[in-house]
Structures are given as C-alpha cells and as structure tokens.
Amino acid sequence: MAHVLVIGASQGIGFETVKAALAAGHQVRAFARSAEKIALSDPNLELRQGDALKENDIAAALTGIDVVVQALGVPARELLGPVRLFSEATGILVPAMEKAGIRRLVAVTGFGSGDSRQAISLLQRLPFRLVFGRAYDDKDAQEMRIRRSGLDWTLVRPGVLTGGRATGRYRVLDTPSSWRNGLIARADVADFITGQIEDRSRIGKAVVLIHHALPV
C-alpha cells in the first residue's frame, strides 16, 4: 500500500479521494488550509494543515510520500475574477516533487482543459467560456506545467460534477476522438483516482471521466 498525499483534501473530489484511498488500505495525508475541519477518523489518516501556494508547506507535506493527488478547486464566486491557483500551485508542487524524488502525480483538471477544449460542442462552448473561461485558462497552464515535467503524471478531466455515492459505472475516455462532456459523481472520480495510485497504465495520459454523455 502507498503513502498518498491529497492536496485539496477538505472538500469535493479531494475529500472523496481521501475516503476512497483509506477504504483501499492506503496511508493518506490530507492536506488543506482547513484540514482540521475534515470530519474523518482513521488510523491511516493524517491531517496536515497547509497552503498549496507556500513552498515550505508543500515541501514538508511531501516527506515520506509515494503518490501525490492534486485536487484543487476554487469557490464559484471567484470564477468571474482572475484565477491563478491551479498554475501557481502546480508551479510550486512540480519542482518540489522533482527535488524530493517523488514521481507519481495524479492531477485533477477538467473536461475542457488542454486539448479536450476542442471536444466541447458548439452549443456548450459559449456558456462554458462565460462561466469557466478564466479558470480553464489557468488549468491549461497547469496541465502544460505538468506535461513539461519529468514526473509520472496522469491528468484526470471529469465532466460536470454531481454528488452521491460511487457507482463504479463510469466511462474512462482516453482517446481524443472519444472525449465528450457528461455527468460524473465526485465519488466516482475519486474511485478512478484511487485506482491510479498503483495502476501505471495511464502514465503520461489525459482521460475524461463521465457516466453518460450530455446531449448536444
């Protein structure tokens, strides 16, 4: 079993990944600014308070780690202003991992980032840009920084996120011709991420995760 650092562990996909990784028997270090509010108790869980934009916090959190999951998010109210969290945090994390000799990185971005932007349908493209444009421009820079690294990375691009329990009935779209937008439960994204902790078959690849494609 691996020692996993989850960055952005207090909510959303990060929180679900903490739960899924613990259930799979891994040791988990849950890293977040509000880590003390994570309402989980497990002998294999360590809560680590820290800021993903502070080099010292990230360097300290990487000690003894085998695999890093980066699952950052920004509040909806911040989407209309400049977004730099994803690129700046990645600009700190990647060299810190390289310095520490930690190679495996699973990073959550989203459908519409990087080269998957071309797969957005014409009907979805304008509202997507209006609402998420600034955030996804920053995710583009995040992905580019990861791709330029020497790490064993996998980019996880979920579709439209929903709540609820993991179903295990999701689609992993790993070729550009198959990429589509769709709904996906955060818990199912976490299930996929947890599988990537030990699965090396998708190193250097980007995948889109959905349950079913949205109508276009």
UniProtKB/TrEMBL annotation:
Domain of life: Bacteria
NAD(P)-binding domain location: 8-199
A family per Pfam: NAD_binding_10
Family annotation (InterPro entries): NAD(P)-bd_dom, NAD(P)-bd_dom_sf
PANTHER family per record: FLAVIN REDUCTASE-RELATED, NAD(P)-BINDING DOMAIN-CONTAINING PROTEIN
Protein name according to UniProt: NAD(P)-dependent oxidoreductase
Organism of origin: Methylobacterium komagatae
Lineage: Bacteria, Pseudomonadati, Pseudomonadota, Alphaproteobacteria, Hyphomicrobiales
